[in-house]
Write a structure and sequence with these properties.
Length: 271
Amino acid sequence: MTQTIAHFVFTLSGAGNLVQALRKAGRKDQVVTTWHDLNIGPIDPSDPSARKIWLEKELGRTEPEDRAPSERDWHDARFPDHRKIVWLSRRSAHEYCGFLNWLWQWGDAPFDILDLSEILISPSPERGPPRLPVLAPCLAYLRDDSIRLNRLWDLATPLPRNRREQYLEVWRQLISENAPLRVIENGILVSAEASYFDSQLMQLITDDWQRVSRIIGMAMASELDDEIISIDFEWLKQRLMLLVERGQLEILEKRSREEMHLGQVRLARPR
């Protein structure tokens, strides 16, 4: 009898892509989503209220409550006899942080891991002429057809003990630093200051009016060229608003936080 599988993923869009791929393949596997944006904001588990206050202040965002007291106990009760597969990409700060936090709570219970970081994906032949395989930055950026045709779930393997300890040490260090951001630099997940992306944004802004959403899109696209994803759209929008408030940028008309992406900005002119 085939063992039932539960997949654990760390973005909503990644979960949607995987569900579509599984159903098209005729599979009834369960998909569990944990989607905290832990690449942004404080992450010290001993002070969860600080994270809540920080997110509300900086982004006007609230998060779902954590399942207390034990993520492992909750999953074991829901999926007692399932094989558990965890999807990870070390090219996505969001997915990487989500996985590390999940592992921190999971304890020593066994599971299999599917690390997409170095896996080459063959594009779907249904979407144009044959193309060379490419790296997928993360599950959220994979089409469901690519997941299905490459049968990625077959690549999951148990996580070795030494690798598990290495991952836990990374998260332990990041928790101790408790920085505003976590980003990927030279393939390594590191802490960063809130202003980390400001210089990149300023390089994209000119003396001409440009829509905020366009500037953010170019910043995010530049990271994709390097096949990594560290940037959050809402965070960049907030940083642009802050640069306007500091007088480094001019905005064509005042916008609320929610509508900032619809505004147009340019470099501030000498007065």
